[in-house]
Amino acid sequence: MKYILVTGGVISGVGKGVIASSFGTILKCCNIPVTSIKIDPYINIDAGTFSPFEHGEVYVLDDGGEVDLDLGNYERFLDVTLHRDNNITTGKIYQHVISKERRGDFLGQTVQVVPHITDAIQEWVERVAHQPVSSDGTMPQVCIVELGGTIGDIEGMPFVEAFRQFQFRVKKENFCCAHVSLVPQIDGVNVV
């Protein structure tokens, strides 16, 4: 499995979703099966309670998952059927880790962001990346992960750290990062 992480800088709506979808479309045109994951670094469990003024419309998947609209773009661009687990939120990750802690899975350990939250993020991505999403059940070969928000936002830091570790988990040759940023262009002004 190969992984492409798409991050963004300067502003949140810089076009990460379009870039991620475009990467997937190019790969699919080369007959490489693709899946996608969207990470929303917010404490909400799903996009059903996001502010539509900040995040746009909610997209509802076939399994009833209320997710970010980017997953709808992924489905249309890539002709795949995604599932609620293809959308990761901070709330889902913390809920998962806290449930494990309450069951006693971490007895004798102090549960912390590193390693427990970062490990949960990596395990979630690996598990979902290996789930077929095409109509013929083909196993994906590439997983495109979009990290929502902006690099530098405190909400996204556990995810950034998780992917810093992830490159070693899956080997560097199976992981690449694409960073999308705003590059302002001032027309009519000569800069020397």
TrEMBL record:
GO biological process, one term: pyrimidine nucleobase biosynthetic process
Gene3D superfamilies referenced in this protein's UniProt entry, alphabetically: P-loop containing nucleotide triphosphate hydrolases
Every CTP synthase N-terminal domain range: 2-187
InterPro entries: CTP_synthase, CTP_synthase_N, P-loop_NTPase
Domain of life: Eukaryota
Membrane-traversing stretches: none
GO CC list: cytoophidium; cytoplasm
GO function term, MF aspect, one: CTP synthase activity
UniProt name for this protein: CTP synthase N-terminal domain-containing protein
Natural source organism: Diploptera punctata (Pacific beetle cockroach)
Species lineage: Eukaryota, Metazoa, Ecdysozoa, Arthropoda, Hexapoda
